[in-house]
């Protein structure tokens, strides 16, 4: 029974090591020629990094092979694994479409090619034997020019059947020099009715309160309860949700101990701020969503009641979940024949 919702998963970081290794063996052996065996490749691919920038460099390894031709291969295995091993009912995949277009083309031609990428990802994500509700979040990028980032928003507007929102990625320390530009882009997205999230307050270098009013959800956001808890009441008032990805903060060196997240959860619950537990880069971490749940429980960061609240929040804040309740309500209906068995659609 599919039960869970995943709101923060990157397409580039979602390819599990074994699938990527097999692809390289068949098509790009030069990319793994320095690894004598799979074990050493897996260790390199999944080991912790010292900084977020170092960690993000791994995305380029996968982006280079995620093309129009190969995306169906990767997405089929991604969705199949999410359905079978993670019990996902809902999955938002986020990525920068521009970075999946041929590098030898001009900027304008690469922008034109982005629509094809979105179409391929959208069609490949719908797999009959793996009935997951899927949608895409298109990521602007901190190292791409304004013209490309605006085109990404326009692409989201034009492809609502596949796209449920926009994001900004690429390292939150790089926003400062172009802060007014990001504000204008998010303001434009909101004016077009596009849902918004953004990598913000992930690290101590990525704290920009000016951007918060433009977001429906906050990508990571852990530095808010850790360093700026005075912002929590306003975030609760706006109904914003934090997308917390526990393993990421250890892999990037942002936190030294996962138990530091207890303060994040405690302060958010106390302030009435919702948290959705996510994986971020399940492939890079070699973990799946149920493991994130189990790890938080094992370290006494949250209890079962808080876990259930986070699971419910994930469906409540999902941009494209079409029902009014999470799938558990359907299961309850099956166990109680006198109750309706069909979930009501959202208005």
Automatic annotation (TrEMBL):
Gene3D superfamilies: Metal-dependent hydrolases (3.20.20.140). Coiled coil: none annotated. InterPro entries: A_deaminase_dom, Ado/ade_deaminase, Metal_Hydrolase. Residues 5-319 form the Adenosine deaminase domain. Transmembrane segments: none annotated. CDD domains: ADA_AMPD. One of its GO terms (molecular function) is metal ion binding. Keywords: Hydrolase, Metal-binding, Zinc. The keyword Repressor does not apply. Pfam families: A_deaminase. Belongs to the metallo-dependent hydrolases superfamily. Adenosine and AMP deaminases family. This is adenosine deaminase. It comes from Nostoc piscinale CENA21.
């Amino acid at each position: 029974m599919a039960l869970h919702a995943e709101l923060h998963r990157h397409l580039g970081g979602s390819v599990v090591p074994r699938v990527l290794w097999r692809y390289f063996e068949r098509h790009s052996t030069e990319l793994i020629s320095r690894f004598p065996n799979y074990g050493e490749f897996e260790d390199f691919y999944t080991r912790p990094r010292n900084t977020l920038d170092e960690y993000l460099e791994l995305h380029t390894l996968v982006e280079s092979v995620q093309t129009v031709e190969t995306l169906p291969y990767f997405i089929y295995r991604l969705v199949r694994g999410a359905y079978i091993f993670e019990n996902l009912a809902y999955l938002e995949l986020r990525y920068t479409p521009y970075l999946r277009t041929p590098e030898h083309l001009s900027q304008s031609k690469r922008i034109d090619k982005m629509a094809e990428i979105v179409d391929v990802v959208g069609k490949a994500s719908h797999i009959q034997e793996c009935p997951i509700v899927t949608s895409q979040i298109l990521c602007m990028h901190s190292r791409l020019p304004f013209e490309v980032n605006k085109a990404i928003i326009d692409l989201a507007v034009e492809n609502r059947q596949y796209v449920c929102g926009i994001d900004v990625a690429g390292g939150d320390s790089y926003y400062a020099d172009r802060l007014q530009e990001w504000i204008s882009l998010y303001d434009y997205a909101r004016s077009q009715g596009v849902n918004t999230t953004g990598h913000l307050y992930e690290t101590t270098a990525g704290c920009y309160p000016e951007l918060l009013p433009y977001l429906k959800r906050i990508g990571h956001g852990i530095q808010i309860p850790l360093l700026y808890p005075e912002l929590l009441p306003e975030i609760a008032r706006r109904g914003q949700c934090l997308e917390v990805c526990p393993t990421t903060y250890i892999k990037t060196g942002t936190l030294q101990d996962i138990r530091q997240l207890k303060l994040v959860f405690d302060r958010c619950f106390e302030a009435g701020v919702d948290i959705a537990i996510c994986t971020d880069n399940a492939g890079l971490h070699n973990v799946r969503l149920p493991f994130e749940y189990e790890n938080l429980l094992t370290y006494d960061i949250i209890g079962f009641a808080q876990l259930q609240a986070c699971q419910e929040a994930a469906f409540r804040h999902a941009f494209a979940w079409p029902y009014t309740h999470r799938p558990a309500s359907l299961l309850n209906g099956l166990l109680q024949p006198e109750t309706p068995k069909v979930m009501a659609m959202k208005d």
